[in-house]
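Inputs:
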Amino acid sequence: MDDKMYPKSIDLGVPEQMEPPEPPPAGAVLWAKKNLFSTPFSSILTLVMVGGLIKFLWAIAKFVLIETRQWRAPAQNSRLVMIQGYPQEEMWRIWLTVGVVLFLFGMTMAVMGDRRYLSVKTLARGIMAGGGLLALAFVGPTGVEAWGHGNLRYKIAGIGLIIFLIGFAWLKIKGEAAKEETISNARVAAVVALLFAANLWVMKAPVTGESSEGFVADEWLRIASTTYVPWTIVVIIGILGYFIGNAVKEHPRVRGVLVAWWLLSVPVIVVAFIRKPAIDWGAAGVQLGIAVVFAAIGYLVLKWMGGPKTGEIGRLAASLLMLAALILLFVPLSENLTMARYVRTFVMALAVFGLLSPTFGGTDVNVRRLGRVWIITALALSVTFIFVSSPSALPGTPDGMDFLGGFALTITVAFFAILLSFPLGIMLALGRNSTLPLLRTLCTAYIELVRSVPLITWLFAAINLGDFFLPESFRTIGPAVRAVAALTLFAAAYFAENVRGGLQALPRGQYEAADALGMSVVQKTALITMPQALKAVIPALVGMVISLYKDTSLLAIIGLFDILYILRNVVPNQGQFIGSFMENIVIAAVIYWPLAFMMSRASMRLEEKLGLGSR
Amino acid sequence: MAEEESIIKCRGVKKWFGDFQALHGIDVDVKEGEVLVIIGPSGSGKSTFIRCINRLEAHQEGQIIVDGIELTNDLRNIEKIRSEVGMVFQSFNLFPHLTILDNITLGPIWVRKEPKTEAEEYAMELLTRVGIPEQHDKYPGQLSGGQQQRVAIARALAMKPRVMLFDEPTSALDPEMISEVLDVMKELARSGMTMLVVTHEMGFAREVADRVLFFDYGVVVEEGTPEHFFTNPQHDRTKLFLSQIL
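Outputs:
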């Protein structure tokens, strides 16, 4: 600490700092002795585990490489797996989406900085191991004959050998420097992506012909004969994103902007782009006009409600507006249902802003800022409404999210369910902690009811029971949207319990300190208790997010064409690939894994980052 | 003393926790600019009393009037009084997720509705006053206990309060950090702030207090100037207490 109590001139007799003793000698044998064979029991454990691991890898190698394995089933169906039957002539929308996502991904890598580095030594050894295993697998003693014909086996083994030699040469050239020199993860990812794109241009595989002997190479074609150009372009866009991210990463707002882009990306892409809404521009113009009027009137109303001189009358007026908005929900406004919903939404939104205005307004500057937020919200609400209420122009796709299928459906459902359940969960947690007995009881009952019934039951309820409880005009809603609703309502209950745990872990002193400053309940919650509670339960929340992402696989059971359904029920029924269950299930796991893994890593980094302010 | 000079008026304040009566009718007046030190054994009701003054605890009988406003269950009165009465806690209670500067400016910006730049300037001024301006962008967890308590004082002062309450501000500190906090409090007392201090620091009481109150079993046993208190206590219980801690 810089405010030392003692003046420097006094000799305090502080002992001199000395070098620590030499570290003990290192070496592979010593390391193994210390870490693997330290006691008889650990030696046995080590041997058992190593034996088991070898056995397991052997089984995997056999499974992957055995002749009858039909890896071409998922490979040839990769488009079906990813996007189901999205119309061919609209495919550019998908490619643009992939480009946007890769661009954001590249930027995120640069900005959020996976500033982790691999040493050249580790990397070169990895390359050597990969190449060596490939070579061994195809010529080695496994006796496995992949694609059992001709020279293909030796070609692949040769490629493996070349990869091995590249790694070996790299290690030798670098020599001693290999240990110190490092390469960032992002660069490794970029090179791998480029190699993948290049591979699509070069690699050819035999196409099986109709023959009684099974595998016969008729002709050699590029594996991805139609997609190598777009793939190359989007990979380059992703790398471009990395460079742009690197250029702007010093800007203080760039992180916030990036997070906002990610949050907006999926809804905007899905609703406005992949869905291809057929917008009725005349009606849209009227709706936009109404939105502008609401924005302007709302601005003036909020300016008055939250103004520095209005005081309690503003609060009262906001409450009356909320009451009016609630009554309006039950008053038939017009024959045009869309328009009625539109107006109701706006009145409700304005009422919410009005209730918040005394808290977040109060001075001219704050009120003007709140007004600006209102205008942006009103316009965004309007545009969202216009897009969502327009029917899809895609051939053969009814309303809802049924234009999506495969992995795209999985991701979209998971994203919306996570995004919507989060605020709902926070509100439920606050409700359960509320001092109002009715609200508290209702929230508790909801949480306990939802948590005590399995998710799959709720999904079926949303599909089969929904019609009974929904107003008539909502009954056209498709199964995917219903699934999102069920997942949201289900996950919200769990989120609520996690958040409540975080709130309970807060020391009482935090509430008292906020009280002593004269903060209102809303301010206390938004500024003091909720941020700390959420921070405390990040690991649990991320665990919830990951399991929600994986729970979308239940869509397959309620008859939606998600990735699992396509891989398990559609592909194995194609004449060419009858019964190809095993390889398809493995591929499903391989596709699910990276996103869940990245989420868990991201949460670890978030925890590290936020750890700074803890305690 | 003249009634209109008193900034805090307490009349027959009684408080129960369940069946246990913690305060047995407290009558205390505090004048503007006065430093009142409250001492007494633990469990004597002294903390409960000052926590009643900004309604962290609700009293059940009697009257508490702060700056002409009577404390009732009316939420607006409570918020008004709380923004005029600063409080410093034994366990600091800084907000661990905010930087030092944000800790101090939070109240002024959101409750007093001051512009951000103005609030930050004043916060830096206060941090300079408590002697740690260079720590403004750190988090509470990175500061020593004494520094945290000085930040807590700055946070309370940032609300420009008319009265400051201190609830055993040095009891959770290592001995070598007590003096840095007491120095800040002495400086504050000299600047004319009205202060109610619950403490076990008799040296501080003797040096700074205008008046000392001795609490025991929820009543004011004895009150007087520090002079009177430490040299010529009248009551037996006061004598016993002083003999135990001095």
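Remarks. The CA atoms of residues 12 and 25 of chain B lie 4 Å apart. Strands of chain B lie at 6-17, 20-31, 35-39, 61-66, 69-70, 85-88, 163-167, 194-198, 211-216, 219-224.
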